[in-house]
Amino acid sequence: MTKSHSSHELQTRIVHPEDDLPPGYASFSVPVTRASTVVFPDLATMRALDWRNDAAWRYGLHATPTSMTLAQRLAALEGGKHALLQPSGLSSISNVYFGLVKAGDDVLIPDNVYSPNRDHGDWLAKDFGITARYYDPMIGAGIADLILPNTRLIWIEAPGSVTMEVPDVPAITAAARARGVVTAIDNTWSAGLAFRPFDHGVDISVQALTKYQSGGADLLMGATITVDRELHLKLKLARMRMGIGVSSDDCSLVLRSLPSMKVRFEQHDRTALALAHWLKTRPEIAAVLHPALPDCPGHEFFKRDFSGAGGLFSVVFDERYSAAQIDTFCESLELFAIGWSWGAAQSLAMPYDIASMRTEAQWPHRGTLVRFFIGLEEEADLRADIEARLAALK
Ligand SMILES: *Cc1c(COP(=O)(O)O)cnc(C)c1O
Q1: Which of 112, 210, 244, 254 to mutate to test the pocket of ligand 1 (most atoms within 8 A of CB)?
Q2: What family, per the record (predicted)?
Q3: In this predicted model, what pLDDT tens digit does every residue of 164-221 receive, in sequence order?
Q4: Does residue 13 form part of some domain?
């Protein structure tokens, strides 16, 4: 593409500049390459393009050097081979549905799944002629009994959003594989660091990069990661048809945060675990739902399959406190903000009414659940904050 424009008028030369930068530049940061149009050297190259070829530049929506670098690093981090980036974690979930499921198909979804995923299943069932069925997340190998001839996809979340049950992932994926059913895990909680989905028979891993990978609560992005190329291509085709992509500026923010993710995750983990153990001793708390603690259903699978926990866990308050009292507890915390999207430096607290959120699995607790995200503040300050609000509950 080196056509000379030196003989043209100034305006034309500004539109077609000939830059003359000194060679040899190198830095640690990945250049931000923004593009809608990708320029081809000639028509033969353009006509020979095959969308299946991940190494061919086609269009800014599909990939730029910045987004491809991020995709490759995420695939490597998770132990996968291919990664696709979507503009939010939820759109990654959506990409899995649209890549794999068509009218007449059946999908199995855990009862404790991230609730917009549940809503997605209900929507496809209502308007697009699939069936979405919910299963008890602790079902394990018993999932085999639920698989129908038209079951195409089984969702897994480990642990479940908000209620933190840890499923027996290898038992579910073994049953799925025996029947040729694809499994997709929402692996956001572990950031791909503490749980290695492809070592446990999972086919697709979904990450909400909005959380730990961003680390700054300042962008939205998601990824689907696969080992199998045919599966990758199904997702890639659906992504292309949906017309979704990501901005290279956002990718560069994630690329900047990614090297510090493991140390951040481990720090979140240490503080959260210490607070979880302390909360367990408090008379106001009926149960601590942290996968590393024995109260949490599936604790044995956590010990077997996971290498860490990060900053997200829940507690159930004693039933003597009303939901309104727990609302006041959450609102009066000084260091915990009220907000959905976790994974940044700041702690969060959010109350949930679990009984209203599920249809299959029994919810054994009667008190109000509060989900904590433990940020990067000092443990002593967070503990003092919670302790003061617990004392005010009396
Ligand atoms: C936040 C989250 C998502 C969705 O991510 P967005 O980028 O906010 O759409 C999906 N799954 C889990 C478990 C999440 O926590």
Answers
A1: 210
A2: Belongs to the trans-sulfuration enzymes family.
A3: 999 999 999 999 999 999 999 999 999 999 999 999 999 999 999 999 999 999 999 9
A4: no
